[in-house]
Design goal:
The structure is a single chain. Helix content is 48%, strand content 13%. Strands 1-2-3-4 form a four-stranded mixed sheet, with helices on both faces. Helix 2 runs parallel beside helix 3. The protein is an alpha/beta fold and 161 residues long. The chain is built from five helices and four strands.
Length: 161
């Protein structure tokens, strides 16, 4: 039975080995994030913004523990730090997938970079109630201007060291 099983796995040998290795690395990194955040906080950081989906939970926990502000990423993370969160960047992957798959289905797909943003509904900003009303109004005004095209966000893909 084991010989039969190993024969089926042969072509996936590399992936079968790397999967648990990467899972272990993910756990190690997720464990280290609060330590790195604590060091940043000790050096005077007063707002933590992560870009790590669920791996950012450690960063948010560190912000809560230190009593400083934080920002969510990828989805509404306000439940993780209700008293500390300022906003969450929301990525609407359904819009991205509809755009990509729709272009394949209608034959217009080209191998290129597609810049989707607020005007396309692919990205949103969810402002929390922790943001003062005056700041929230200013932010919402900027968001509305981005969506309408009145304010253009410059994309900068420059690689920096």
């Amino acid at each position: 039975m084991i010989k039969t099983l190993l024969a089926q796995v042969k072509e996936f040998k590399k992936a079968s080995f790397l999967t648990p290795v990467f899972m272990i690395l993910e756990v190690v990194v997720e464990t280290m994030i609060p330590l790195v955040m604590a060091d940043m906080i000790d050096n005077g950081v007063d707002v933590i913004k992560h870009c790590a989906n669920a791996c950012g939970n450690g960063a948010m926990s560190a912000a809560v523990d230190a009593g400083i502000w934080c920002q969510g990423d990828s989805y509404d993370q306000s439940s993780l730090a209700p008293d500390n969160i300022l906003d969450s960047a929301l990525y609407n992957l359904d819009v991205v997938l509809d755009t990509a798959l729709g272009s394949v289905a209608d034959g217009s797909f080209e191998g290129d970079v597609y810049n989707l943003g607020m005007a396309d509904g692919a990205v949103e900003v969810l402002l929390s109630d922790n943001v003062p009303d005056e700041v929230k109004a200013t932010a919402q005004d900027a968001i509305d201007k981005i969506i309408s095209g009145e304010l253009e966000v410059e994309r900068d893909y420059t690689l920096r060291n």
